[in-house]
């Protein structure tokens, strides 16, 4: 009889010393703020399967003319992965939510969530979260 596939007890990625990764952060941003909500770097000789990511922003004080805001998750500082954008003169109650599914990260890769708000009288509440499984490479 032929057996196809890996042999042994460590046949799948989920069997290689798994550890849960759960990150969340929130902040109330006032004019001119650039606040980090969370950061995570995959350790050496590990990988991470990100199962879900979410960000949300809510304008709690109306934005001034020319004031804009962003809630974002970026990977390796090479660009934004998920973005909630808020335009100038956004009224109170303006809300934006984004979710993103599965993503795989390699050792040394970093994922960071930020809220950024331009100068002005507006206030933006922001939250971001991530859930995943870290395992041996």
Q: H/E series, N to C?
A: EEEEEEEEE
Helix content: under 10%
**CATH-defined architecture:** Sandwich
Helix-and-strand structural type: mainly beta
CATH fold naming: Jelly Rolls
Mean pLDDT: 91
Radius of gyration: 19 Å
The beta-strand count equals 9
Global geometry: elongated
Q: What is the CATH first-level class name?
A: Mainly Beta
Distance between the termini: 31 Å
Q: How many helix segments?
A: 0
Number of domains: 1
What this model shows, in words?
The chain has 137 residues and is mainly β. It has a single domain (16-136), classed as Jelly Rolls (Sandwich), CATH 2.60.120.20. It is 0% helix and 59% strand. It has no helices and nine strands. It has strands spanning 19-30, 34-41, 46-61, 69-75, 80-86, 95-100, 103-105, 110-117, 123-136. Strands 1, 3, 6, 7 and 9 form a five-stranded antiparallel beta sheet that branches. It starts with 18 loop residues before the first strand and ends with a strand.
What distinguishing features does this structure have?
mainly beta, Jelly Rolls, single chain, 137 residues
List the helices and strands and how they pair.
Elements: E1 19-30, E2 34-41, E3 46-61, E4 69-75, E5 80-86, E6 95-100, E7 103-105, E8 110-117, E9 123-136
Antiparallel strand pairs: 1-9, 2-8, 3-6, 3-7, 3-9, 4-5, 4-8
Q: What's the short story on this structure?
A:
The protein is mostly beta strands. It contains no helices and nine strands.
